[in-house]
């Protein structure tokens, strides 16, 4: 039941779209922020409260009422600054990428830079798991999201990739990091509710010899048995993340090297 509910929820989330840019961009860039009337209420204060609630209790806990209660104001006063939940989510997303100009795009080789960026972004998702519940495609380009995109492209400066290839490389890495973080975040959530990696394999172990016939599924049997011995969700996902990241960087390096010798 839980897994069915989660899959249905994720399908619903991925089907969602961000609000029209005409309603979000002025908020993100603060070009039309209305002055508060004695309450001290600002977009930054609203977003900060919303992020704090989401970090503590998840995205579902973020409502105009809960944010207003945290700020000690009436819920209707928030609508003067933020017209709806969709716009608030866009502001929250942009807010947590405020570290996008941290110098990573200019340190070390391009492989060093992309590796550091990937790990930072993975840790961001794990630190704010509610990000994984937001619509995936085409967020509005707020100042911090734009800075992240510029930073990621800058990390590949001097590699000889075309503009289209630069964009494709950044989008491929972004997709990989998102997927890896999503799997690890779900594993962590399971462990917090009492279903550890070790317990998962212990529950399945009695049936492995029955369902994973050694002649029909030799590789699956071997991997499952080793996973049961070395159970540890974070360690397993960390290894998979670093393995995937290394393969991506090596593949990209091959293309860049071929361009350099062409």
Automatic annotation (TrEMBL):
<dbReference type="Pfam" id="PF02909">
    <property type="entry name" value="TetR_C_1"/>
</dbReference>
<feature type="domain" description="HTH tetR-type">
    <location>
        <begin position="40"/>
        <end position="100"/>
    </location>
</feature>
<dbReference type="Pfam" id="PF00440">
    <property type="entry name" value="TetR_N"/>
</dbReference>
<dbReference type="InterPro" id="IPR050109">
    <property type="entry name" value="HTH-type_TetR-like_transc_reg"/>
</dbReference>
<protein>
    <submittedName>
        <fullName>TetR/AcrR family transcriptional regulator C-terminal domain-containing protein</fullName>
    </submittedName>
</protein>
<dbReference type="InterPro" id="IPR036271">
    <property type="entry name" value="Tet_transcr_reg_TetR-rel_C_sf"/>
</dbReference>
<dbReference type="InterPro" id="IPR009057">
    <property type="entry name" value="Homeodomain-like_sf"/>
</dbReference>
<keyword id="KW-0805">Transcription regulation</keyword>
<feature type="DNA-binding region" description="H-T-H motif">
    <location>
        <begin position="63"/>
        <end position="82"/>
    </location>
</feature>
<keyword id="KW-0804">Transcription</keyword>
<dbReference type="InterPro" id="IPR004111">
    <property type="entry name" value="Repressor_TetR_C"/>
</dbReference>
<dbReference type="InterPro" id="IPR001647">
    <property type="entry name" value="HTH_TetR"/>
</dbReference>
<keyword id="KW-0238">DNA-binding</keyword>
């Amino acid at each position: 039941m839980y897994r069915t509910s989660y899959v249905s929820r994720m399908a619903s989330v991925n089907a969602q779209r961000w609000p029209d840019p005409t309603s979000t961009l002025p908020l993100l860039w603060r070009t039309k922020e209305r002055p508060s009337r004695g309450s001290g209420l600002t977009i930054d204060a609203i977003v900060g409260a919303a992020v704090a609630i989401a970090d503590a209790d998840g995205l579902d806990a973020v409502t105009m009422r809960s944010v207003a209660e945290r700020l000690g104001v009436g819920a209707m006063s928030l609508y003067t600054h933020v017209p709806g939940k969709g716009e608030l989510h866009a502001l929250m997303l942009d807010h947590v990428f405020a570290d996008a100009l941290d110098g990573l795009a200019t340190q070390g080789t391009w492989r060093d830079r992309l590796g550091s960026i990937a790990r930072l972004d993975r840790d961001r998702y794990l630190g704010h798991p509610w990000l994984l519940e937001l619509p995936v495609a085409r967020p509005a380009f707020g100042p911090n999201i734009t800075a992240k995109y510029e930073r990621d492209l800058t990390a590949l400066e001097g590699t000889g990739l075309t503009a289209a290839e630069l964009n494709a490389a950044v989008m491929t890495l972004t997709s990989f990091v998102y997927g890896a973080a999503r799997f690890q975040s779900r594993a962590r959530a399971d462990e917090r509710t009492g279903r550890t990696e070790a317990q998962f394999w212990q529950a399945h172990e009695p049936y492995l010899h029955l369902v994973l016939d050694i002649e029909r599924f030799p590789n699956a049997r071997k991997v499952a048995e080793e996973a049961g011995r070395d159970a540890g969700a974070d360690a397993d996902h960390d290894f998979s993340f670093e393995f995937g990241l290394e393969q991506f960087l090596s593949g990209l390096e091959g293309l860049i090297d071929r361009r350099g010798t062409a």
